[in-house]
TrEMBL record, chains A, B:
Organism, scientific name: Hibiscus sabdariffa
Protein name: Alliinase C-terminal domain-containing protein
Domain Alliinase C-terminal: 32-141, 158-422
InterPro entries cross-referenced by the UniProt entry: Alliinase_C, Alliinase_N_sf, Ethylene_sulfur-biosynth, PyrdxlP-dep_Trfase, PyrdxlP-dep_Trfase_major, PyrdxlP-dep_Trfase_small
Pfam families: Alliinase_C (PF04864)
UniProt xrefs under CDD domains: AAT_like
Keywords: Aminotransferase, Pyridoxal phosphate, Transferase
Amino acid sequence: MVVGIDKAASAADSVVSSAKKTPTAIPSDSVINLARGDPTMYQPYWRRMGDKCTVVIPGHDLMSYFSDPGNLCWFLMPELDDAIRRLHRVVGNAVVDDDRYIIVGTGSTQLFQAVLFALSSPQNPDTEPLSVVAAAPFYSIKHGNMGMSSFSSHVVGQPLILHGLVPHLVSYPEETEFLCSGLYKWAGDAYSFDKDGAYVELVTSPNNPDGTIREAVANREGGKLIHDLAYYWPQYTPITSKADYDIMLFTFSKATGHAGSRIGWAIVKDKQVAAKMVKYIELSSIGVSKEAQLRAAKILEVIAEDCASSGPDKEENFFEHGHRLMSDRWEKLREVVKRNGVFSLPKYPRDFCNFKGKDTDSSPAFAWLKAKDGLNCDNLLREFKIITRGGPNFGVDSDYTRVSMLSLDEEFNLFLERLAEIKGAANRM
Amino acid sequence: MVVGIDKAASAADSVVSSAKKTPTAIPSDSVINLARGDPTMYQPYWRRMGDKCTVVIPGHDLMSYFSDPGNLCWFLMPELDDAIRRLHRVVGNAVVDDDRYIIVGTGSTQLFQAVLFALSSPQNPDTEPLSVVAAAPFYSIKHGNMGMSSFSSHVVGQPLILHGLVPHLVSYPEETEFLCSGLYKWAGDAYSFDKDGAYVELVTSPNNPDGTIREAVANREGGKLIHDLAYYWPQYTPITSKADYDIMLFTFSKATGHAGSRIGWAIVKDKQVAAKMVKYIELSSIGVSKEAQLRAAKILEVIAEDCASSGPDKEENFFEHGHRLMSDRWEKLREVVKRNGVFSLPKYPRDFCNFKGKDTDSSPAFAWLKAKDGLNCDNLLREFKIITRGGPNFGVDSDYTRVSMLSLDEEFNLFLERLAEIKGAANRM
C-alpha cells in the first residue's frame, strides 16, 4: 500500500505501541494512536495458526543475489510468484494470466516509485517532467497542490525525525517529490488537472482515507494509470470483479497484516514497463529480501489453500475471519456514532461479493469520521486521548479525520468507549 | 557493497548459475561467469554450520512496521543493532561507540542513495546539484565523466533487461544519475575534479575493482566523504585500524556472503545526517524487511561469538576460514599467472592484521587482471569461456579486466585450468 502507511505522530503518542510482540493490558488512561495503519489486528489470527505458517531458514540458504535468472524479474522467487498468482485466482480480485508480469518490491512503496521511473524514463530534455496526479482526498501534507520547491523545503527543510519521534507521514506527494527528480513531479488533485500532455493518475480503490470505490477522473489524452489495490481484498470490500488494469499494486501489509516484511507486488501488462520497474529495483536495492519473499510465499500459499478447500468441517479462512472482525468493528462503531450524535460516517453501497458468494457491506481499513457543526474532529478526539489524522492531511476540512480500524482489540474497544463519552463534551464546546 | 554487485552479462553466460541451492558438477565446456560478485564461495561453510544459524519465524511474528519506536532508526531491530556493534568490536575494523548511529538499509545500495539524499537536501534552488565523485578506477559504464543527459539516455533509453537476461551493471554513476535528481549529480573522477563548492567523494577501501587501500583524493574545500568499507573484513585485507570516518557503509553480502538478504548498514557520526538517511529509507521503502534483519542478527552474532571464544579446541572462525580460502585461491592464481606469462596482477603490501595478530597478505574479492602487450584481456578470456568485466567498465584500458574471486570452488578451479591453457593461444593472437 502506498498511502496510509502513515504512522505515529510522536513517541509521546506511542504509549500504546503495537510494535510489541504480545498484546498487553492497556492502562485506561493511555493515549490510543489510531493515526497510523499498523495492521496489528490480524496478529491473534496468525498466532492461532501455530506452526502452519512458520518458516525455517538454515544459515546456508538464500545466499545468492539471484532468484530466477531466466525470469524478467530475476530477483522474484518462483514460489512467491506462484503463491501470488494462486491467491488472486482463488480470491478472484485480479487477472493474473500467464502473460502478466509479477514484480516484487520492498513494499508497494518501492513499486510505486518503480512505476514512476518506468513511465517517465528515458528523460526527454525537451518536455516537462511527467505530471503525477490523484483525486482528492488522498494522503498529503497540507491543502491544495504542492509545487516542487515549496514541497521540498517543507519535507526536507524541517527537522525530519528527531530522536524519540516515529515517522508520521509517507504520502504520494512526498514519495513523488522527495528526490526532486527531473523525470516526474507531483501535480496535485486529478479533478482540477487541466494540463496537456503526458500524465500519470494514481487510482486507489478502495480509497484511503475514505474507503470509496474509485475510477480514474482526469481522463485526458496522454494519461496513464496506476491502480493501488492495497485494500481490494474480501475483508475490506465486496470483490465485484477481477481487476484487469495495466499496472496494479498490492501489498502483503494490508492483505494479511505482515507490514514488517516489506513485501509488495505489481501485476503489469506491458513488458517494457515491467522491465523498467525491475531496473529501478535493481538500481535502488538490487532486488528484495529473500527471507521476506519466502515467508510471504508461505503465508499466501496457506491462505490460498485454506480458501480453496471445502467441506462441512472447514474452518473459517483468513478472509472470512478478517471480514467478520471488520464487520463487527464497523457495526459497533456505527452504533456508537449513531448514539452520541456528534459524528457521521460515510455510507457504502452493499454489493455482491464473488468471493463470499453473497451480498456484503464494505468495512474499510480506515473510518473517515466527520464531526458535526464544523467541529475540528481530530482535536476533539485528541481531548479524549485518541490520536487520528485530520482532514487537512488529505486536502479537506478539519471536520474530517481518519481513524485506523486495524488496531489490536484492546485499543479498538478503548477507542469505542471514549468515543461514546464524547457527546457531553462536544456540547460544551 | 555499492559497486561490484554487477552481475551476469546474459542468460547465455549464466550456464553456471550460482543461484542454485546446491552445487552441481560443472560440465567442462560450460561458460564460467566471473563478471559478477555473487559471493557463493561461503555457502559450504554455512552449510557445515548446520542448525547453528537457522532462524525460525512463526506466522504471527515480525508483523508491525515498527522495530524500535524510540530509536532514531525506528525500523532497525535492536538485536541487529547489537550484533553489528558487537561484530565490529570483535573484529576491530570500525569504531562503533554508543554515540554512533547505526542505520540499516535494503543492501548498502539503498544506503548509498540515502547518504546522497542526506547530504544534498533540502534542495537549494540557487546552487548547483551536489557533485558526486570517486577516484578511478571505479565501476562505471564507459570511459570518462558522464554528464546527466548522455548518461540517462544510455541507461534508460536502451532495452534494459530483456527477458532471459540478468542484470549486468549496478554502479555508482548509474545509482547517482538514474532518477535525474535535482539534488545531486555524478561528476566523474575525483582525481580530475576541480569545481568549487560542495561535493561528495566516495572512497571505496579496499577498492573495487583493484583491491587497493584508498584515501580521499579530491581534498578540496566543501567536500564530504562516504567510505564504502564493504571489503574491510579480515578475509580480504589486513585490519590495520578501527575505521573512524563520518559515514561508513558495510554490507552483509560481502561480509558473510548473504547477498540474497539485502542487508547493509551505515555507521554515522552526525545525528542530522542519520535522521535524513532514515527519512530516505522511510520514503523509499518504509523500513527494511524484519525477516532479513533477524537472520542477519543471528548470523553476525554467531560469527562474533565464534571470534570472541578461545581455547585449544577452538574451531576456525568464519574470518579465519574465509582468509584461508582466499589466500589459497590467490596463491594458486598467482602461480598460474606467473607460469603462463600472459597476465600480471597487482601486488599488495603485506601488513599487520590486528584481528589475526600477525602480518598477512591482502586477498581481495576481485582479481584485477592485466594482459601483457596491450591484449584485450576480457576478450581473450571470453575465448576460453570465462566471462569477466573489462577495464573500460571502470574507466581504464581494455588490457585490464576484473575477475570475481568469490565463486564456488568448482567454478574457480575450472577458471584456473582454463587460464593455464591460455599461453599458447595468446601467442597466436
